[in-house]
Automatic annotation (TrEMBL), chain A:
Family of this protein: Belongs to the GcvP family. C-terminal subunit subfamily.
GO function term, MF aspect, one: glycine dehydrogenase (decarboxylating) activity
Enzyme class: oxidoreductase
InterPro entries: Aminotrans_V_dom, GcvPB, GDC-P_C, GDC_P, PyrdxlP-dep_Trfase, PyrdxlP-dep_Trfase_major, PyrdxlP-dep_Trfase_small
Gene: gcvPB
Organism, scientific name: Candidatus Mcinerneyibacterium aminivorans
Protein name in the entry: Probable glycine dehydrogenase (decarboxylating) subunit 2
Domain of life from the UniProt record: Bacteria
From TrEMBL, chain B:
Keyword check for Oxidoreductase: yes
Enzyme Commission number(s): 1.4.4.2
A GO MF label: glycine dehydrogenase (decarboxylating) activity
Pfam families reported for this sequence: GDC-P
Organism of provenance: Candidatus Mcinerneyibacterium aminivorans
Full protein name: Probable glycine dehydrogenase (decarboxylating) subunit 1
InterPro entries (UniProt xref): GcvPA, GDC-P_N, GDC_P, PyrdxlP-dep_Trfase, PyrdxlP-dep_Trfase_major, PyrdxlP-dep_Trfase_small
Catalytic activity: N(6)-[(R)-lipoyl]-L-lysyl-[glycine-cleavage complex H protein] + glycine + H(+) = N(6)-[(R)-S(8)-aminomethyldihydrolipoyl]-L-lysyl-[glycine-cleavage complex H protein] + CO2
Signal peptide start-end: none
Any Gene Ontology biological process: nucleoside metabolic process
Keywords, in A-Z order: Oxidoreductase
Family as reported in the entry's similarity comment: Belongs to the GcvP family. N-terminal subunit subfamily.
The keyword Ribosomal protein is assigned to this record: no
Gene: gcvPA
Enzyme class: oxidoreductase
């Protein structure tokens, strides 16, 4: 058990130094009543105590630099180290957000150039980098839906999402004030066209979709889907979580999407940071450009200076206090320059090769509901293990921890029972995939021959299975021992 | 440069094991009309060395707060960041992990967030804090949504002394909802109490207040709270975390939700992000709150451990009924904030706040002695940011001061069109007497000139 930093505290201990205050000023009478006599009760530790504490905590984490992390839908690829160095250059990290345009020409040039690449990659016409994550991009998109239809004087109050959609899609629709209509997937794991036709009418603002979908299957009928939505006057939103499958191969703009978000923290190698920060730029087709949040990056009329443009006519306003997670964008840009768009195409090819290779090698050992070509990920099921030996998917996931790999995303998408959603990403080598296959096969055989070992897993982790019910029953959300 | 490790032999081997001859066959399921075929648009990659050079060149075209002496704030501040912060957040164990979905191998992240939650609660005087929102402005927006859900009312009372840029984000978040924004006038740099009394009634979901406000003035939270007519109305305070190192806690003054921009807690300016929205509130509202929350529990052998809890509020379980759509948050930035708060500790945060206060007041006194410069709000208390009224064209003054090597502050007219000649100046612990004295003498010279 690692002590809490508060338990290391010893009153009077310090880990900081500051220069002596070189002005001689006292608190004036106006502020006196507002001052708290007691300083905030923060930890009091030495610098060494502090470093040991955080290093010890760090050793308890699994992470991409330690081993394979095939968390479906999250694209846990390797994060190139050079990105980290670049984002820390003073010329990026020490810029005040209210700097004048003339002081940030390099930064604006970067955003402008990155936008050019993203336009080519997606087939969209204009981007904003303001959204701070995928769901924030979705939110920006739903507000554009809202304002667009308000301006057209159309009263549309519903959004369609497939039952395979990520939770952020319906949650976003609600935050836009829309009612959510969930439509069933067909037996191929794709949008059911009849269900879509039935649901789609002039009260529906549009469809939120990811392609390939969360089963890792490319929506073959995407053009027909777009037509059905557009024919009724709706808009199509592309959840870019799965762009890692199709870069340079198929573009959301050509598929018929009107708004797309990208996850720079997934597809473009910016690290996930234990939960963030991300970056979720959105791109739109020409007819929606004027709805983007302000400002956007522009070249001035002479074409040699860059500026921030606030003059969008129908802008939804601002979605971030400043300009988004620019420090994350810097990493994604560096990555894009390293690989080039050609390299990104290869990324998608290798991501899909890896996924199909794993799927093919594991489908005998685990039930595969949709046995067909997949893109960058696929979904297995632990339902046979559950039925035969009452070994649940959760148990399988926990057992994987004992073998030094991170489990896939589990119990999502909800349309597959006991789902194991596996996304190896392109950065895993064949050796690493073969190792993963060995582990999964071993667990499948343990589930048959020695189910208790699996059910009681993990055995080798810093803590064993944790009591989540207790955490809910007796909520302890902060350290109370002041 | 590429990061896929496959040799061409391996590619062939893997393909043939699948019964394919070429990579293209992996994409057979994509209809022709949806294919991208214009290879000529795809540019080439380049080496690490070349990219380093390119990025260095781009970065050098930017002017930083090290090229200037910075007196600019307005929500983002040039503060000292102890070395510990970057050393900890540079550890791949923190930055290459993700959301702690598997608690057995994520205790580092989980215990850290529990500690972070504790520090934020102690800073704000609240019961519960979440694991972060995208930034201060979006945290404020989520607080408004939460207040509407708790109170089941839709009127939002907003003083004009709240940062208009951040309010703009709130309004965007609430597009399509039935929220009704009611503005309260500003009087002498703070909320106009008479107007507040007029605007407040039993239908108000939330009263928002920035602490200190967008002019740097410390609003009297207690007096504002006293004007509430309904118990259901939520008091949402957006507080500067460094100011909380000195000032009374919003939680002790009647706040129900306290949010803020956490950039000042050890996070570099980075042109506005990644920052950190901190979010804290009273316990009884936990089920309506947005974002991830970590709780303490034990493993099956009785060992202390931490897990994500109250997940039934979140989008991955609740879908359209979730309290928010947030998924990825600002995780690593909370590590920076915790390391910052732990490095400074109890005494250090107080000292940073104290030095900022003293230096700001020193500069205020010196500047307002100059002919042509007035105190904009003379009888109001401020913390480390203040407004002066300068009898000159501020754009020209700013231009000249920048040439002299200073970022002199923010021209308030951009946010408040009715405010002429007002300059908002921020002073952090980083500024020295020498820098301030020369700043004063340069302004003096320019105003004379
Ligand atoms: C399919 C899908 N959509 C949306 C999101 C949300 O993205 P973010 O976490 O960046 O907000 C995710 C994230 O896991 C996802 O997998």
């Amino acid at each position: 058990m690692t002590e809490l930093i508060f338990e290391l505290t010893s009153p009077g201990r310090k880990a900081y130094t500051l220069p002596d205050c070189d002005v001689d000023v006292d608190y004036d009478d106006k502020i006196k009543d507002f001052i708290d006599e007691e300083p905030v009760n923060l930890p009091e530790v030495s610098e060494q105590d502090l470093m040991r504490h955080y290093v010890e905590l760090s050793t308890l984490n699994f992470h991409v630099d330690k081993g394979m992390y095939p968390l479906g839908s999250c694209t846990m690829k390797y994060n190139p180290k050079i990105n980290e160095d670049i984002a820390r250059l003073d010329g990026f990290s020490d810029i005040h957000p209210y700097s004048a345009d003339e002081d940030i020409q390099g930064l604006l040039e970067m955003l402008f150039d990155f936008e050019k690449d993203l336009k080519i990659l997606t087939g969209m016409d204009k981007f904003t980098f303001q959204p701070a994550a995928g769901a924030h991009g979705e939110l920006t998109g739903i507000k554009i839906f809202r304002k667009y239809f308000d301006n057209k004087g159309e009263d549309r109050d519903k959004i369609i999402v497939p039952d395979s959609a990520h939770g952020t899609n319906p949650a976003t629709a609600s935050m836009g004030g829309f009612e959510v209509i969930t439509i069933k997937s067909n037996d191929k794991g794709c949008v059911d066209l009849d269900a879509l036709r039935d649901a789609m009418d002039e009260t529906v603002a549009g469809l939120y979709l990811t392609n390939p979908n969360t089963l890792g299957i490319f929506e073959e009928d995407i053009l027909e889907i777009a037509k059905i939505v557009h024919d009724e006057g709706g808009l199509l939103y592309y959840d870019g979580a799965n762009l890692n499958a199709t870069m340079g191969i198929s573009r959301p703009g050509d598929m018929g999407f009107d708004i797309v978000h990208l996850n720079l923290h997934k597809t473009f190698s910016a690290p996930h940071g234990g939960g963030g920060p991300g970056s979720g730029p959105i791109g739109v087709k020409d007819f929606l450009t004027q709805y983007l949040p302000v400002p956007v990056v522009k070249k001035d009329d002479n074409g040699n200076k860059y500026k921030l443009d606030y003059s969008l006519e129908n802008t939804i306003g601002k979605i971030h206090g400043f300009f988004g997670n620019v420090g994350v964008v810097v990493k994604a840009y560096a990555y894009t320059k390293l690989l080039g768009l050609k390299g990104l195409k290869k990324v998608s090819e290798m991501a899909c090769l890896n996924a199909n290779y794993l799927k093919d090698n594991l489908k005998k050992d685990y039930y595969l509901k949709f046995n067909r070509l997949c893109k960058h990920e696929f979904v297995l099921s632990g339902k046979n293990q559950k039925a035969e030996n009452s070994v649940k998917t959760l148990d399988i996931a926990k057992r994987m921890l004992d073998f030094g790999v991170h489990p896939p995303t589990v119990y999502f998408p909800q349309i597959v029972d006991e789902a194991l959603m596996i996304e190896p990403t392109e950065t895993e080598s064949k050796q690493s995939l073969d190792n993963f296959i060995r582990i999964m096969k071993k667990i499948a055989s343990e589930a048959k021959n020695n189910p208790e070992t699996v059910k009681k897993a993990p055995h080798t982790t810093p803590v064993k299975r944790l009591n989540e019910a207790k955490a809910m029953r007796n909520p302890d959300l902060k350290y109370e021992n002041e | 440069m590429a990061y896929y490790p496959h040799t061409s032999e391996e590619i062939e081997e893997m393909l043939s094991s699948l019964g394919y001859e070429s990579i293209e066959e992996l994409f057979e399921d994509i209809p022709k009309e949806a294919r991208f075929n214009d290879e000529s648009l795809l540019n080439e990659g380049t080496s690490e060395l070349e990219v380093s050079k390119l990025m260095k060149e781009l970065s050098e075209k930017n002017k930083t707060v090290d090229d200037y002496i910075c007196f600019m704030g307005g929500g983002a501040y040039d503060r000292y960041i102890p070395s510990t912060v970057d050393h900890v957040i540079s550890r791949p164990e923190f930055y290459t992990a993700y959301t702690p979905y598997q608690p057995e191998v994520s205790q580092g992240t989980l215990q850290h967030i529990y500690e972070y939650q504790t520090m934020i609660c102690r800073l704000t005087g609240m019961d519960v804090a979440n694991a972060s929102m995208y930034d201060g402005a979006s945290a404020l927006a989520e607080a408004v949504i939460m207040a509407m859900n708790v109170s089941r009312k839709n009127k939002i009372v907003v003083p004009k002394s709240l940062n208009p840029y951040w309010l703009r984000v709130v309004k965007t978040y609430l597009l399509g909802s039935d929220a009704e924004f009611v503005m309260v006038e500003e009087k002498n740099g703070e909320i106009d109490y008479c107007d507040l009394e007029d605007k407040i009634d039993d239908d108000v979901a939330a009263v928002l207040t920035q602490y200190p406000n967008s002019f740097g003035i410390v609003e009297n939270l207690k007096e504002i709270k006293d004007k509430f007519t309904s118990k259901k109305t939520m008091f949402v305070v957006m507080a500067d975390p460094i100011a909380l190192g000195l000032l009374k806690k919003p939680g002790d003054l009647g706040a129900d939700i306290v949010v803020g921009e956490g950039q000042q807690l050890g996070i570099p300016l980075s042109f506005g992000g990644p920052y950190l929205g901190y979010f804290a509130f009273r316990k009884k509202y936990v089920r309506k709150s947005p974002g991830r929350i970590i709780g303490k529990t034990e493993d099956k052998e009785g060992k202390r451990g931490f897990v994500m809890t109250y997940q039934t509020r979140e989008q991955h379980i609740r879908r359209e009924k979730a309290t928010s759509n947030i998924c990825t948050n600002q995780g690593l930035m909370t590590v920076a904030a915790s390391v910052y708060m732990s490095t400074l500790g109890k005494q250090g945060l107080r000292e940073v706040a104290e030095q900022s206060y003293k230096k700001a007041h020193y500069l205020f006194n010196e500047l307002t002695r100059i002919d042509g410069i007035k105190k904009a709000y003379p009888d109001k208390p401020f913390f480390d940011e203040f407004v002066i009224e300068v009898n000159t064209d501020l754009n020209k003054l700013k231009y000249k001061m920048k040439k002299e090597g200073y970022l002199p502050g923010i021209i308030l007219k951009h946010q408040y069109p009715e405010k002429d000649n007002q300059l908002l100046i921020a002073v952090t612990e980083k500024r020295t007497k020498e820098e301030m004295d020369s700043f004063v003498s340069k302004i003096k010279t320019i105003l004379k000139g």
